Amino acid sequence: MSSATPDSVHTTLDRGLHQLAALGGDCIDHANAIGTILWSPPRVVVVGRLKAGKSTLVNALIGAPVAETAALEATNVVTVYRDGSPSRAEVLALDSTRHRAALRPGAGIELPIPSAEVAYVDRWLPSAALRELTLIDTPGLSTLTAANDAATRRVMIDGFEQTRTASIDADAAVFLFDAAPRVDEIEFLHRLPFTPLTMLGVLSRADSFGEGAFGRRDPLTHAAAHAATMAGPLAGIVHAIVPVSGLMAQTSHTGMLTERHAALLAQLRDIAPLEVLRIFDSEDPTSGGVPPAERRELLALLGEYGVLNGRRIAADGAAALNTWLAERSGIAALRHALTAATGRFAMLHRAHRILARLDQLAFTHPARDHIRTLTAGLRADPALAAVTVLEDYQRMLDVDPDAAVTDELRTILTATTPAGRVGLDGHSPPAAVTAEAHRRLAAAQQRTLATRSAAEDAALVTLIRTYTALAAGH
Ligand SMILES: Nc1nc2c(ncn2[C@@H]2O[C@H](COP(=O)(O)OP(=O)(O)OP(=O)(O)O)[C@@H](O)[C@H]2O)c(=O)[nH]1
Ligand SMILES: [Mg+2]
Fold first, then answer.
1. Which residues form the G domain (predicted)?
2. Strands 118-125 vs 88-93: parallel, antiparallel or unpaired
């Protein structure tokens, strides 16, 4: 397993797909179809409550205002944002037909069919960010908008409303919540085919957290403290929680801010905070020297927090204000989390999807014996050992999340050194690592005598293989 890098996973799967194509006939088409999964970036879905700020955050991560965001209108279709030219959209209907769709000026698309018949929208645009990750925006979870809620569940939960064709095949999820997730949201997250390793929590709208911009405590600091407090109770669902202001991130990452905005804001720099609040609440055309339309524009771009605290910085110009917004937004930490742990396990999840497709093909294809041999060869390759560990971990989370076996699988997956894989710290001498591997190997062998599920049987095979290699010093 020590040899497993994203590159070696990729190379090994690529070799397998070449072997599949070499079987000839329609296996070439199957190899090409599965190859598109291998050559496309991991797919990260953004989910959360109605109005949690999902579309705003998606725009910020893409670096372009392509997703519609609004205080009133809700996102009503699932949209998959992928890198590509020309900028265009296609709608996949629940009956599997595809329809080209016109782009609206600004953001969003014209749906050529009713939203209730849409499985999801494929939206391509040239974007460096989307070359690394495909981003999927979803309608909010809420019983208030039952149709939207169902649209998200349909593509996320296998077998929901018997619509399997609609699956969006995500590799990781970003879960947005504000104060605390609700019971129904937690239940939804448990039904997703992910492990906490590929689920990242985002405490959204951090700029208006708690009492907000005019409260006693800085909302961003307060949100960071709250995120840290929530990390423990939510550890079984997400591996980290990052506080983010999607609004400040969107404004600073999509080129929306101009010198005109900075100049308008700078006019308010010497006014007392409560007076600023009064100016923004008033419809008086001359209040504060900034007309109502411009006040609304500033508020929509910066939020109350940005308006209140960005005034001094605005005097230094739009570039300075933009830098400040970007820094305070928390988007850098979110990006880091997305490319670090989440990204690593999303890659493994994508490899799992490819192996699952091969397994499925082996089930139905006339050349099933060849395909089965080929897939078994891939699974036995050390480069793909971590994929099997991830699959076992996912199954154990379903049947017995608190079992010792589940914990050991997680330790193996998240460790970056041989010592870490047996639960020791990275500086442990090799002799201590092999001794601990021997001890764990014996314990795993002992446990095979009284297992409680098929998932545990499979997991023990994986643990025994891993500990045998570590005991031999590999
Ligand atoms: N202050 C503040 N407002 C935000 C933030 N993110 C989003 N908003 C505002 O909240 C409203 C809803 O934002 P959206 O991004 O459309 O939320 P959504 O989760 O996509 O909403 P649905 O798709 O309807 O579920 C908009 O008016 C946004 O401007 C944020 O970080 N801070
Ligand atoms: Mg939305």
1. 43-185
2. antiparallel
